[in-house]
């Protein structure tokens, strides 16, 4: 009687299916909405918009998400402390005036308080003396 142990043989099969060889690229990063300053003290500054409410104005007694203090000269302040709100919901972004003294404008048209206006890439929003282009990157 033969008491030898038989070692199992492990064979590997090379991948022959082209799908097995193809590299799956990583999904692209999600697009993010951004406001880019066109007119103001600091041209080309970007303000990212995050999901939910983004309040634009001047930081003083209450914090704001988009602080435009550095964008206007101290001699000519037209931006209210809580001037406007940008709301990002999924792929949509809206702007609404918060009863500001000098108004919020989109492409030269006034945005009325309580009436959110949808933004599309390329729209120019004016708050006080600051103009910003809405874009998605």
Strand order of the largest sheet: 2-1-11-10-7-8
SSE topology string:
HEEEEEEEEEEE
Overall 3D form: elongated
Task: Report, as a whole number of angstroms, the end-to-end distance.
Answer: 76 Å
Residue ranges: pLDDT <50 for 5 or more in a row?
none
Strand tally: 11
> Compute the gyration radius: what is it?
27 Å
* Tally of DSSP helical segments: 1
Quickly list its features.
single chain; 137 residues; five-stranded mixed sheet; 1 helix
Question: What report would you give on this structure?
Answer:
By secondary structure, the protein is mainly beta. It has 1 helix and 11 strands; from the N terminus they run H-E-E-E-E-E-E-E-E-E-E-E. The strands form 2 sheets. A 6-stranded antiparallel sheet has the order 2-1-11-10-7-8, with no helix packed on it. A 5-stranded mixed sheet has the order 4-3-5-6-9, with no helix packed on it.
Describe how the helices and strands are arranged:
Elements lengths: L17 H4 L11 E7 L6 E3 L3 E6 L8 E2 L14 E8 L2 E6 L6 E3 L2 E3 L5 E2 L5 E4 L2 E7 L1
Parallel strand pairs: 3-4
Antiparallel strand pairs: 1-2, 1-11, 3-5, 5-6, 6-9, 7-8, 7-10, 10-11
């Amino acid at each position: 009687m033969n008491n030898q142990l038989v070692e199992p043989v492990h064979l590997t099969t090379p991948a022959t299916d082209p799908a097995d060889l193809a590299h799956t690229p990583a999904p692209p990063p999600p697009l993010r909405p951004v406001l880019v300053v066109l007119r103001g003290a600091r041209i080309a500054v970007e303000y990212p918009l995050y999901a939910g409410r983004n309040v634009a104005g001047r930081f003083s007694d209450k914090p704001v998400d988009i602080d435009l203090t550095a964008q206007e000269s101290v001699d000519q302040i037209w931006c209210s402390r809580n001037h406007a709100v940008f709301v990002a919901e999924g792929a949509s972004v809206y702007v609404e005036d918060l009863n500001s003294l000098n108004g919020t404008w989109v492409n030269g048209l006034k945005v009325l308080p309580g009436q959110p206006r949808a933004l599309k890439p390329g729209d120019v929003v004016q708050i006080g003396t600051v103009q910003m282009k809405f874009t998605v990157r």
